[in-house]
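Title: Prediction job returns without error message
Component: structure pipeline
Severity: low
Priority: P3
Assignee: unassigned

Description:
Job completed but the reporter wants confirmation the result is attached to the right record. Sequence as submitted:
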Amino acid sequence: MRLSAVLKCAAFASMLTVAGAVLAAPNSPPQVSEPVRHANLAVYFIRGVSSPGAVPLTLEEALAKGVAQVRETSNVNSLEIENTGDAPVFVQAGDIVKGGKQDRSLMVSLLLPPKSGRIPIASFCVEHGRWSQRENEDAGKFSASTSSVPSREMKLAMQAPMAKSASVAALDETNTRQQKVWDGVQTTQHRLASGIGADVRAPKSASSLQLALENDKLTAARKAYVDALMAAAKDDDIIGYVFAINGKLNSGDVYSSNALFKKMWPKLLTASAVEAISHRSESAGAPPATKDVLAFLAKADAGEQSQKALNFGVNRVTAASPAAYMFGTVKNDGAFVHKNYVAR
């Protein structure tokens, strides 16, 4: 059933020009629905017309099918990824890959073409302390990507622009970001312990964020959120969502098509639910009004813009405003693949 009180999102109606490239809006102005709620989590769906073209596999799908490989390089902040299949593969910033010498989170969103060959991809360790094989896992590669980083602070640590100076080298910036990510893992584990009343750290690797997310009590607590909200995204015109926790806007994701959104939705909802659980001991407020969601998106899109070329004709676009960031994955022709919005 379509949700009520749908409002037009004028923020998307125009084109966003970035460093000489054009970030194309969806085919028609998207709309934002009234929130669907469970406990302290409120979800707003973004509706619009899907762009034409093939729908890529997600990294989770590609790893499960054996048509993508993520390999260890023995460099904490760089892995190697390859698409060996016949369909493109979408990789989203914040995807966690499990295995190797340490579990990692991938830093950038990109689109891998079929038969891509091996390429480097930036990463951050989300398991401080291990640098060897874990039980029966393969220390040379990563077996799965079922989870995404469930923390606004960690998303910002990985992606938000940092102040530059002549004395700050790229390695110093990477090290600073990595320390913030490690701090974020510990903070998330402590918050989750408070949220469910039990330690989520795994005995076989206490520093692993991925293993903490697999904790049985956390899984049970998360299920209530997922059961309440999963089916709300069934409509075929939904291309993204924004969520708020305890009455505060947190993050959101918009995709080029409903089909790609639906593939990502279980992972997105799970991460949102985990983050909500980590804050449920705090005071809850009323969900923001839809006009506030529209303003959140519009201000992020209109922020100070920069662009960086990735691989295979894909660019990473960043727009920074005082209230929020937009991190976009955009093809050379201006067609957008994915936008991630994060409140500051």
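Comment from assignee: result matches the submitted record. The helical segments are 59-65, 152-159, 170-196, 209-213, 216-229, 258-278, 290-301.
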